[in-house]
Amino acid sequence: MAILLLDIITTASILFVVAAGLLIVFGVLKIINFAHGGFLTIGGYAALVTTQLHWNPWMALPVALLAGLVLGAFVERLVVRPLYARPLDAILATWGLSIVMVQMITIAFGRGTNFVESPVQGAIPIAGDTYSLYRLIMLGVAIILGAIMIGILQGTRLGLTARAVIMNENLSRSLGINSGLVRFATFSIGSGLAALAGALITPLLSVDPLMGVPWLLNAFMLVMVSGTSLISLGAACLVLGGAQVAISTYSSPVLGALSIMVLAAVLLRIRPAGFARA
Amino acid sequence: MSEALAVETLTSGYGEAMVLRDVTLRVMAGEVLTVLGKNGMGKTTLLKTIMGFLPVRRGQISIFSQSTVGQPPHHLAGRAVAYSPQDQAIFQELTVEENLQLGLPRVTRLAPELKRVAAIFPFLAERRRQLAGTLSGGEQKMLIMARALIARPKLMLVDEITEGLQPSIILRLANVLRQEKSANGTAILLIEQNVSFALSVADRYAVLSRGEVVDQGDAHQPGADTSIAEHLSV
Amino acid sequence: MKHLIPTALAAAIACFCATVPAHAADDTVKIGIPVGLSGANSVVAPSVVQAAKLAAQEINDKGGIMGRKIELVVADDGSGADGAVKAFNSLIFQDHVNTIITMETSAARNAGLPVVARGKTPFIYTSYYEGRSCSPYLYVDAWVPDQQVASIVDYFMKEKGAKTFFLAGSDYAFGRGMLEFTRKYIAAHGGKVVEEEYLPMDASDWTAVLSKLRADHPDALISSTAGGAPNVTLTKQLRAAGINVLFGNLGVDEGTAKAIGPDAAGVYISQSYLTSIDDAQNQAFKAGLQKMFGADMKTPNDLSEPEYDGIYLYKAAVEKAGSFNEAKVVSELGKVSFTGPRGTITMDKQHHAPLTMYLGQVQPDGSVKVIQTFKNIDPGQQCPKLKS
Amino acid sequence: MPDSAALACPVRLPSQRGRTERRLILVFSVIALALAAAGPLLLDTYSISILIRSFLYGAIAVTVDILWGFTGILSFGQAAFFGIGAYALGLSVTQYDFTAPIVTAALIGGPLVAAAAAGLVAWLGFGPKVTPLYISVITLVLSVIFVQMIYSGGDFTGSSSGLSNFDTFDISMEGWFRVAGVFLVAVTAAGWIFVRSDFGRLLVAIRENEQRCRYCGINTARVKTLLLIGSAIITALAGFAYAGYNDVIAPDLGNFQFGTQLVIWVALGGRGTLIGPAVAAVLIDFISAWLSGSLPFIWQLIIGLVFIVVIVLLPQGLGPAVANLFRRGRTRPVAARLAPLPDADAAGSGALPAIQVESVSRNYGSLHVLQDVTFTAGAGELVSLVGPNGAGKTTLIRCLSDGQERSSGRVAIEGNPIGRLAPEACVRFGLGRKFQTPNVFDALTVAESLRIARSRQERLSFVRTADEVRLPAAAMRVVQATGLSSQLGTTVKHLSHGAKQALELAMVLAMEPRVLLLDEPTAGLTKSERSLIGEVLVELVRAHGLCILLIEHDLEFVREISSRIIVLHQGSIVMDGTVEEVTNSELVHTIYAGEPHAVAA
Prior knowledge:
The structure holds 4 protein chains of 4 kinds. Chain A contains 11 helices and 2 strands. Chain A is mostly helical. Chain A has one domain. Chain A is globular and about 60 Å long. In chain B, helix 7 links the parallel strand 7 (155-159) and strand 8 (187-192). The relative contact order of chain B is 0.19. Chain B has 2 domains: 3-80 and 153-232, P-loop containing nucleotide triphosphate hydrolases (Rossmann fold); 88-152, no CATH class. In chain B, helix 3 runs parallel beside helix 6 (137-150). By secondary structure, chain B is α/β, with parallel strands linked by helices. In chain B, the strands form 2 sheets. Chain B has a 6-stranded mixed β-sheet, with helices on both faces. A 4-stranded antiparallel β-sheet of chain B has the order 2-1-4-5, with helices on one face. Chain B is built from 9 helices and 10 strands. Helix content of chain B is 36%, strand content 28%. By secondary structure, chain D is of the alpha/beta class. Chain D folds into 2 domains: 4-326, ABC transporter involved in vitamin B12 uptake, BtuC, CATH 1.10.3470; 355-600, P-loop containing nucleotide triphosphate hydrolases (Rossmann fold), CATH 3.40.50.300. Chain D has a 6-stranded mixed β-sheet with strand order 9-11-12-6-13-14, sandwiched between helices. The longest helix of chain D is centred in the N-terminal third of the chain and has 29 residues, at 14-42. The relative contact order of chain D is 0.12. Chains in contact: A-B, A-C, A-D, B-D, C-D. The interface between C and D is large, with 55 and 57 residues.
């Protein structure tokens, strides 16, 4: 039972870390970034490069974040900016972008599965059993990341500005907020977070050009049910991620893998606001 | 007296529909101009065009003798212009304090400025941590006014601030605006439907009907209200 | 006016289509290799192509097949059914190849079979797979579950005293096919399967499976996952969870095991080809590759070496038939033999071949140590409806 | 009045255009069919084998375009429907035998299962209050689930390996080429006729302004559901043919990558052009069969890059961009004739109040926009709703016309409680609503808009464009007096603000409502237009016994035409009385403008 609970909260943590970047982009820009999986992959390869250069494995995190930020900045300028008024087209264009990113990575690194050195190894004893240390670290990472993001949003001028743009863009602009700049920064940060998440999950996974795709759909569904709130996202990750773990454990992992998508789809039909308060 | 706002032969609108036609207006520093008119006559469109939310089709807009045509809305705040829109003028989900903070430039500290506006509207200090959406209608209007004043603007654009308010609060707002004008020399463009309030604050008036200025004059001149009433009832 | 454009485009298509391809010249023999240059198999595809090139060069240097030089035609099948239909069609009907000899995914192989039947083209499949794919034109020179599973399960039961088994696989044909056979085999030999779990092919989170594994305390874990990522994630997460259990992996090749690094140490694998096989043919094979490709050489493996054998088997069949006639070659393919790096191969058991299997264990340095050798394991009843 | 038909003297009538167009389609189809017939003689086997598949994909692209380009439904799920059709044949044949009854069962069963899946998806995706994005999400999930089911199916479905080499039709490759070619031509031609029909214009209307469609009494969710089901059936048939020809089925036929690929083809070919997507699908699939072998990764990269560029810079797609190079001059506008309808039954039932509102409240969180509003209005009354901005007037109208809007209380229209009914159901009780800002279909012509407003009375044709727009007298008067009658062929987005207002009013009147809810119908109109509207409204009330609830700021106008005035202030009714009572009330003056003379003037 203790293990099941640990499985649930660590799974929720991983989902939270993966979906956070997508959420802030959706929150401020009102578009779904289908290249999110691509940025996740970029993060994975940033970690790979770090390993290949024999740097400290923890260095993968800043490297990935930086790569995501820079690439996100370019993408915002070139692809996303003209599409703010056409949200469905933005989905398509970012999906096209993810195809391009996957192919570029394939051309540069090959189609093969690669391995990244994990910054920590092994398991620690817990509740009379052993548990993966890295998964526990992911719990901590999710809490810290959530706290930092909420801290920035609630406690800084930047966060206040971003929240103001989310709530009422025109009013914000009339108060002197350069909403174009806010969008630019948000997309960059969202992409940076996606890449960071990619680097964070690679010690548990392998790195290959398509590593982002399976995460994209779950992250997407989680964001759909969370609206624009990080707290809602946390709740959605716990509930739907918990359902995934429970269904995988007590029924079959194949059903479990579909559970987030199916439950979210049904939830949205019954309660369009999802986990966000109506 | 310098010219705070000059609108010359301005034409603008939404899409292909022109709402404003050849509108010319001027507001001097330390002067209140009120623009009166019924709904759908182009008053709000005028402010939105001045702010840069709508493109200028023809004509010229200058603020403190510099053209602002083609500039994005956020540039105007940097020129000490405070805009209080009619609809959705506050962030309901933000606190009173955060709403005020957003009225200030990035570098300015809130505390002393808050103290200053709280002297005018004391409830602001008491309810600073309350969500703005939970304030009463009148308090929300006062918050809008406070947010405009907190940045020490040189030009205020105020859109139907009295709408739906009790007479006592309207009176209070009139006092605040008069005080601001005379104490700080602020230029104010006041969009109104409430003629008596408008005339009690304004130095000059203009009446907008179907996108054109149909009457203007000195607000203190006797008979101004009758002239306005005539044009309003067209 | 508006309608002129579609019509013009239609005409353009027609012109484009009309560029009729050249027919095979009479002095060459064309061997078609539809392979996953893109998609899941793109990792291993280059080594397959290299094995084929080596065989072709060796044969051509000695005068070719009945005087005709081999010409290889490689086509990308995208590692999937849709791409394979395209690739087979283009090879058989556009390039008019004499035979298809290749390693592919099961989906691609299945997709190719109807095209092969339409073209009546001999087809040697050189990839290990889940078994029981049957067609008069299809021959297989790689292993099936009946040959591989026995070695690992027997070893675990006899040498390690394992009685309870936990099976985990990717949810796809190979994963399910292998584990299904394993389950039956274990039951038939007095063992017990405590759990059989599958994870979607592209999923990477084994948490729930590992929790069950932990709760069940089996004597051994046998996995059959999709190549590449799932192998890695399972091994890594197993080690990260601190679970130490006897672990046999049916779906990992030597190269991947090596790349996983220290986490793979101790894992048992069973293959028909290992680079460390110590015979003259293997030495010559490796030396040939080294000479031909130098620094670009891909490490040969259990998916690439059978391609080399396959081309030699085709040569033998043509020479025995005394003709390139497809029907005659097909009927000879099950009778001829070739002795290569894996020993002597004859596809005489219902179009499949008895093979020597090597049980190996991955060492901390990534090398694979041969623990036991199982000689000439029979493929069992793969295609009882076929004559030979 | 009957002469009005002669007033509009359009250049060409839609049916004439329809005839020419249909002749063109016929010619085009014959050429295409001839190509399909002759193809096997001209082409090599390889091209034929690839084109068979490309043709099938082209047909699916047409369905994607009807859904997305015309109706605005972005579906990633066509792949799943394709897979269902293909697996229906493959599974039936491998489980049973290749006999006529089994194959027929698969031919019918596959599309049926696809239709059922589409129905389920539509139920989830076209629910009330869901964003347009949501249907894309659900169709995407459908593809994922489909693939997962196939993977888990073990020997039954062949899992990842799929099934192949099953017994199939004994048709030569040339035969299949013709089957696929005819299928593509048939689907494209039928689609072409369909999207140009009156019903096809409704699809565009739904894309442009679904809300207005619903307030025209059109159950848009049902239209979209049927459309999705139809597309699923066609796509499943293509899947059936694919499996029959290739003798192969595999999970990647149904995965979401294939679904997105279809969308990419449609976007590149030009959404909303039908021919563009069909040509793009055939061309790209065919060319990639030739090129992808030699440049597997680069090819994907190029497609991805071109796709991004097209979406960002050429949202209309490459097809129209190319076509524009060749196009000389614009097609002439097509108009229709107006035809008057005989006057409907004048008297309302009269027994029940037309509008009955009982303690209706509306809260947005802690904000009370309406509080305990109660009133009734009967047939023959023209009730004006006045009050300062933010008093809740528009919210009240919303609560009367959409059962989902109010927080509490009861509303009945012509004696029918509206419960929680959607607008399209409320409209059927005889309600007509005009919005504050013109709520019209920008991409349609005036005639098309009016016809869609009449669609509940006169069924829209699936194949033809009607020559006449039949309008009841009131709508006819508005159309003629505001000059719309001479602009029947004009696209609505080119109309002036005032003309749009008039058009929306005419559309509402065209529905022959018993109860009219009008939110500032004269804003932006000239004085003469305004007095005309006033006359029409008064006549509707006096002569036809309608009940009208009117929001208006022009108090003079209100005084002239109202029989009664309700004053709303801060969400509550503060006064309900005759014109004299209200205009003379001090209380009202204070509320409304802070000073008496603003009203009294």
